[in-house]
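Please, structure for the following, as C-alpha cells.
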Amino acid sequence: MALVLALVLSLLQLGSGQWQVIGLDRPARVLVGEDVLFSCFLSPETNAETMEVRFFKNKLYAVVHQYRDGKDQEHMKMPDYRGRTVFFKDFLAKGQVSLRLQKVTPLDAGLYGCWFRSQTYEQEAIWELQVLEMGSAPLISIKGFVDGGIQLLCQSSGWFPQPTVKWKGRTALPSDSKVNADGHGLFDVETSLIIQESSGSVSCSIQHSDQSLEVESRVWIKETFFQPSPWRLASILLMVLVFSLCASFIVLRISFFKSRGKILAEVRELTENLDYESRDGQAEWREARKYAVEVTLDMDTAHPQLYISDMKAISFRSHPQEVPYSEKRFKRKCVVASQGFRQGKYYWEVDVGYHKSWYVGVCQDDVERKVCMNLCPTNGYWVFGQWGHQQYFTFDPSKFSVFLRTPPTRVGIFLDYEDGAISFFNINDQSLIYKMTHQFEGVLRPFFAIYEGETRNPMYICPVSLR
C-alpha cells in the first residue's frame, strides 16, 4: 500500500512540472590511477541552464564539483578534488551533465551524488564508486620441511580493497594468513600451507571479495620431494632456483560493469609453457606509452551529429546540430584531430566505453571527406573498431574480424611513422590487439568515428599516465 502511494505521489509531482534526477543505476568500478565518468540527467527532459548542479561525496556539502550562475565554482570543491574534475555541460539545455574524475585513488571510494536545484524544486541521485587495484602475481616459495611435510609461502602486494586468499589443491592444508596495509592504503597479503604428500598441482589464488579480480599462481609438487635422500636439500634448493626463474601461472579475470559488459582476461599457461606473446605485448605497450602526446579534436571536421565538448569528448546525437560550412568537414560520422604527424612516434588513448559502433586510428590529411569510402589503407585509413556486440575488426587491406578475450573499453594507439607501423592496444588487459604496417606518406591525423543511437556517456581522449 505504501509503495502504491509513493508511486501516485511521484506521478503527481511529475504532472505538476517537477522532475527526477536519474544517475547511475549500479556501482561504478574503476582501477586505481584511471579516470571515471559520472553522468546524470533530468527525467522528463528539462532545461537546466539556470539551475545549480552539484556532484558530491557522501554529504551534499562535501562538494566534488559545483556549477552555479553559469560558472564552475572551483573554490567550493573539497581540497582533494581540486584540479581533478572536468564538468561537461554542453547538454544542460536537455538536463544532461557528466563529470570526469581523474586519477582515482583508494580514498575516492564511497557514495557519490548528483544534485539539481531550480528556484522551486531540488532533487538528487546517489550511487557508489568502487575503487579496485589488482595486486602483484602471487609469489610461491618453499620455506622448508615442517611436521613431515613441505611448507609453502604465498605472498602478494598492492591490492585494494582487502582481498581474500585461497589455496587450491587435493591435499592442501591451509595455515595462518596475514594482511597488512601499506602507507598508500593498499593491502599486502601472506599465507602458507603444509603439503603432507605428493599433491600434483597446488595453486595460490588471491581475489577481491566480489570476485571481480583474481590472480592465481601454481606449482607442482612431485613425489621425489617426500622420498628420503641425502640429496634432498640440494634438490629442494635447485627446484627453488628453477621456480624463481619461471614466471607464475596467472589467471586474471576482471568483471567490470556486468550489466553493460564484462572485462574478462584469462591467461592459462603452465609454468613450463609461458605465454610469451602476452608478455611481449605488455612490454611493447609500456614502451609505446613513453611517446604519449596530447591530442585535441578539430571541431571544423566533425559531422553535424557529433557533438564535441572540452576539445576531447565526442557524443553522438540522432538530431544533427547547425554547424558552419567547412571544406574540412566529413560527410562520414567522424572527426579528426587538430594535430598532424608526418614523422616521429606518437601515442594516445581513447575511452570508447560501451559504445557498440566506433572506430579509432589515423587517416591521411588529404582523404576524400565528402564521400563515404571503406576505411581501408587503400583509401588512406588505418583503423580498428567495433560493430555490434563484441564484433571487432580492421582493414588490412580488406576487412577481417579480430577476436578478443577481453572486450576493450579503452584503446591505445601508437603510430611509428618512420617504421611504417600503427599498433592498437587493449588497455583493459595491457595486450596488443593488432599491428598494421604501411609505408606512410604525407600528414596523418588521429581519426575517431561513432555510429550508434544516443548514449549518455561520450567517447573521449584520455590523459595518459606513465605510472
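Confidence is low (pLDDT under 50) at residues 1-15, 244-277. The two ends are 55 Å apart (CA to CA).
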